[in-house]
């Protein structure tokens, strides 16, 4: 049985678990499974073992919240001695001389960075593949693991590591978590301070992927530098709104996904929460605000990459994004309008429950070799996710069943700013209910 991050850290702190052996076991699992799953762009075997030995020798080991925990880090942050590829052959290969702020927090907490998880180029797409491989869904390998934190979700879902770091600008943590059958939390704006928060025109946030609410809370607390977030409490009675209508488009959703929402709503009602059918007044501001940033954000970031070496789909996306920026279409007005509407909705509700995905993921292929138009239909799956990046609200995906295709199903829980503990408490409660 694979230990949770909470169990590993407790054992290493107490001296009953050897961090080197824990790391060896994680590397063995990666070696056995990753040729098929493709979660990692780079496995840091020698470096990870050296880090684990150093954890065992640290005088403060008994105080480390992530003592000896093997973790996958999304390949978008600075790791000393590595370069961040961002899923692209067009970027710099200059290695970082020091850890960036995110990795520095992980190491300070005692985590062992076993590898860099694969991402799509510039994190622009909801499927993850590079020229070197495809990140597949561990539960249904004929499907993708999602994106852009697809490698991180696959690594956790396949049992290679108990925890993974991810980032989310338009659903990039919650989407992969949902279709891989793990928990993924995107904190609210500003909860995890980071110098790269301006990416994707300010929608970009660091978060956690895990198999349990306790583990997700543990990682989020370290990333946010807030120990209070590491405690999963019991939720009090909450006013839960339930909606299965795709924002703006109202497109149809697979019945298995809406059925999962209905089942979770029943579980929450039986647990004492108030359940009401209600949908926020999304309006077109959600679509225009999020779409403009989806185009303009990667286009701005692409200035650091060699244009001729970008993938064809990315070159098209960047051209559109530059037009969007020049035309002044990245506007604060639609965003403010949506934030106001979201605030109105949460004046009457504590939590919103929706499907996490609006459609099944794509089949596992080298989507990076296809055209922009061929990739575009994948974006419809994120319809329930993107509004909350634009609003700056915390949201998480929690496992809630399985589609007849074999793909796991997740539901999304959303709360107003400051609601991370509430979401994790609900996720923990749902875990207990599923275990009965």
Automatic annotation (TrEMBL):
Signal peptide: none annotated. Residues 22-424 form the Amidase domain. InterPro entries: Amidase, Amidase_dom, AS_sf. Belongs to the amidase family. This is Amidase family protein. It comes from Pseudonocardia alaniniphila. The lineage of its organism: Bacteria, Bacillati, Actinomycetota, Actinomycetes, Pseudonocardiales.
């Amino acid at each position: 049985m694979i230990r949770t991050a909470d169990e590993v850290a407790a054992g290493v702190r107490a001296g009953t678990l050897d961090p080197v052996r824990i790391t060896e076991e994680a590397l063995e699992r990666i070696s056995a499974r990753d040729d098929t799953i493709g979660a990692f762009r780079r496995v840091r075997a020698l470096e990870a073992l050296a880090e684990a030995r150093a954890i065992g020798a640290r005088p403060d080991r008994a105080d480390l919240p992530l003592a000896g925990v093997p973790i996958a880090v999304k390949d978008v942050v600075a790791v000393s001695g590595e370069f961040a590829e961002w899923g692209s052959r067009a970027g710099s290969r200059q290695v970082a001389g020091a850890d960036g702020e995110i990795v520095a927090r992980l190491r300070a907490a005692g985590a062992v960075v076993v590898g860099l998880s694969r991402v799509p180029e510039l994190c622009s797409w909801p499927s993850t593949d590079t020229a070197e491989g495809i990140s597949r869904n561990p539960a249904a390998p004929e499907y993708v693991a999602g994106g852009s934190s697809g490698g991180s979700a696959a690594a956790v879902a396949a049992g290679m590591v108990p925890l993974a770091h991810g980032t989310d600008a338009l659903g990039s943590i919650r989407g992969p978590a949902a279709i891989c059958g793990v928990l993924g939390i995107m904190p609210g704006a500003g909860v995890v301070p980071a110098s790269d928060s301006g990416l994707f025109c300010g929608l970009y946030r660091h978060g956690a992927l895990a198999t349990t609410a306790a583990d997700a809370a543990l990682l989020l607390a370290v990333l946010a530098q807030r120990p209070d977030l590491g405690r999963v409490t019991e939720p009090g009675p909450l006013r839960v709104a339930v909606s299965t209508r795709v924002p703006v488009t109202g497109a149809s959703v697979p019945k298995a996904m809406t059925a999962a929402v209905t089942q979770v709503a029943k579980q929450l009602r039986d647990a004492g929460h108030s359940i009401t059918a209600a949908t926020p007044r999304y309006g077109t501001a959600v679509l225009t605000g999020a779409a403009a940033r989806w185009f303009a954000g990667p286009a701005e970031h692409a200035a650091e990459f060699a244009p001729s070496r970008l993938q064809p789909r990315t070159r098209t996306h960047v051209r559109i994004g530059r037009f969007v920026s020049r035309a002044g279409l990245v506007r604060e007005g639609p965003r403010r309008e949506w934030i106001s509407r979201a605030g109105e909705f949460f004046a009457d509700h504590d939590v919103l429950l929706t499907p996490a995905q609006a459609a099944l993921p794509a089949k596992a292929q080298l989507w990076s070799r296809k055209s922009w138009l061929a990739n575009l239909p994948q974006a419809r799956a994120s319809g329930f996710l993107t509004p909350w990046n634009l609003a700056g609200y915390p949201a998480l995906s929690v496992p809630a069943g399985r589609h007849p295709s074999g793909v796991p199903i997740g539901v999304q829980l959303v709360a107003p700013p400051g609601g991370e503990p509430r979401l994790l408490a609900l996720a923990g409660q749902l875990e207990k209910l599923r275990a009965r």
